Amino acid sequence: MQIVKRIEIITNTLELEKVLKILDDTDVSGYTIIQDVTGKGDRGRIIDDLEGHALTNSYVITICTEEQEHLLVEAIRPILKKYGGVCIISDAKSIIH
Amino acid sequence: MNSSLLLSNILTPPVLFFFLGMLATFVKSDLEIPQPLPKLFSLYLLLSIGFKGGYEITESGINLQITFTLLAAIFMASIVPIYSFFILKLKLDTYNAAAIAATYGSISAVTFITAQSFLKILNISSGGHMVAALALMESPAIIVGIVLVKIFIKSKEEGEKEKFSWGEVLREAFLNGSVFLLVASVMVGVITGEKGWVKLHPFTEDIFYGVLSFFLLDMGMVAAKRFKELSKTGYFLIIFGVLMPVINAIIGIMISKLIGMSEGNALLFSVLCASASYIAVPAAMRMTVPEANPSLYVSMALAITFPFNIIIGIPLYFNIIKAIGV
Known about the structure:
The complex is a heterodimer of chains A (97) and B (326). Chain A is of the alpha+beta class and 97 residues long. Chain A has helices at 16-25, 66-83; strands spanning 2-12, 32-37, 39-41, 44-46, 57-64, 86-94. Helices cover 29% and strands 41% of the residues of chain A. Chain A is elongated. The longest helix of chain A has 18 residues, at 66-83. Chain B has 326 residues and is mostly helical. Chain B has a single domain (3-26, 36-324), classed as Na+/H+ antiporter like fold, CATH 1.20.1530.20. Helix content of chain B is 81%, strand content 0%. Chain B has helices at residues 3-10, 13-26, 36-60, 64-88, 94-105, 109-121, 129-138, 140-152, 155-160, 166-175, 177-206, 208-227, 234-259, 263-274, 280-288, 294-324. The longest helix of chain B has 31 residues, at 294-324. The A-B interface holds A 12, 14, 43-45, 47-55, 78, 82-84 and B 35, 38-39, 42, 162, 176-178, 222, 225-226, 229, 232, 278-279, 282-284, 286-287, 290, 293-295, 298, 302.
């Protein structure tokens, strides 16, 4: 088992590409995306009832090292500040395979 | 207002299905249309009206009146957000005022399609170039909305703002899926002409009314779900959402009279002026004015202005057109 940081990001779908670029630039080994997630946050309810993706969120989960975590947090903070969303970081274990 | 006209509008299958969709939500029915289907129906409706419009342009050709109509469309799409902005600024901050103003400057294709079907029931013809007017009116309001924010946000706030890419915004404004499909379908209609029209007729005409009814059933549910959000908008915006379409429609009707449009074209033009966008504008505003609250501008367009226009607005504007004698 390997000790890792689990990063969960919920961001506006329009900003997803920017978030993925940050993850790529930070050299994380990979990520999983769930698109068009809905819910409620400090900027109101997110309802998936429109034709486009403009008002829906995407959920991204990845793991990284502690060093990468600091880089990620600094890069993602401006996006969260402008467009809303959340970034949750927790300690986790990953199976080495 | 001629009540029989209002009643004949309400008692058409598309509008009744719209009510049914609203009712399903209000009584908490588990009626649900699988999510990809409404999107497919919406694309179908855009493709059909675009293709039909393109074919009709080949039949009618381009003349001076059509040119004036298209110029009037761009004029209205640019001017509506400006005066709407100053009205909204009386009660709202710049971000929300600009986003709502852009929403009301742009158009709703489904309202336009419902007005077309209203004209069809009355056996009143309209020109294919009105679809070109629809496409032209989708995007200018987005640009005006962004420019208004740029002008009215104080310089110190501007310094704090993260810059956005104009390229991205213009791509979203002019090449978003709906606008792209509509314009491309008009071009296909123009290129294929009579032969293409005959071939696609069973697809673009015969099932059109049924698809519109099904789509409005979904829109009824969507609008009703957004009603809950209206508690956040307050009376000012609810009144704005009803009065602004009427004012815009009346200005549109005056312009129609000035240009000498036919009754059918005048109704479609007034409906374009009166409708509010819930597809192209929310995407662009979310990208460029994230400070604005989507619960306000989307809910106003979907839960107030859209139902008002398709239930009361369309017959009301038609009555005004008749009364003025366009």
